[in-house]
Specification:
Layout: H1 2-13, E1 20-24, E2 66-68, E3 73-80, E4 86-93, H2 99-104, E5 106-112, E6 125-131, E7 137-147, E8 164-173, E9 178-181, H3 187-205
Length: 206
């Protein structure tokens, strides 16, 4: 009886299973609440913003995940843990994380057939190369979306009102970017903050 109760407690404490888990670039959050538009976790921890009806705030975007050179081609890697027929879409917001901006900057839109087998030869593992915009940005965001509309043939022009799971990565595009992944330590954050401040000073002098 005690074992059964202990197991029930563990299951109750476990986070909700995510449908997609972004591996690279590192996600801003991966708490299983990735039904919240536009970036998955955060919000109020619920699924109430599934249709992007609530305006997203990017004030608490957290640490930068990665920094890259403008215009570079990167490999986005993720795992599909619950298979659905539909599309995978990778988008970009040059400042913050707003769904209308993601809809305006789609980098890739590919079929997600039924089965969730992935495209790398490993169960559920996906990877896709995308080319980032050729511009500098200090608070830009990459969005990965799993659209579960049952249609794996037609690209998705907008995620507003769709049944979708979301993940985001916080990026910096700038000089010297080489795709370094951020750690939880503070050294990279300090370095990126200094780089962003230097860019702002250069722009102010122009």
């Amino acid at each position: 009886m005690r074992r059964a109760l202990a197991l029930a407690g563990v299951l109750a404490a476990a986070p909700a299973a995510a449908h997609i888990e972004l591996d690279a670039p590192a996600p801003r959050t991966n708490d299983g609440q990735n039904k919240w538009c536009p970036c998955g976790g955060g919000g109020d921890g619920s699924r109430d913003n599934a249709g992007c009806a609530i305006e997203a705030s990017d004030a608490e975007r957290g640490l930068v995940s990665s920094t890259f050179a403008p215009g570079s081609t990167i490999t986005v890697r993720w795992r599909e843990t619950v298979g659905h027929t539909g599309r995978f879409r990778i988008s970009f917001d040059p400042e913050g994380a707003d769904q209308s901006d993601f809809d305006a900057h789609v980098l890739a839109d590919v079929a997600d057939p039924s089965g969730g087998d992935g495209n790398t030869g490993a169960g559920g593992a996906w990877e896709l190369e995308v080319t980032l915009p050729n511009e500098e940005c200090d608070t830009c965001t990459l969005q990965l979306a799993q659209v579960m509309n049952g249609n794996d043939e037609d690209p998705v022009p907008s995620l507003m009102g769709t049944s979708t799971y979301y993940q985001c990565a916080n990026l910096v595009l700038g000089e010297g970017g080489g795709g370094c992944a951020a750690s939880s330590g503070g050294a990279l954050t300090v370095a990126l903050s200094a780089l962003a401040a230097a860019r702002r000073r250069r722009r102010a002098r122009r």
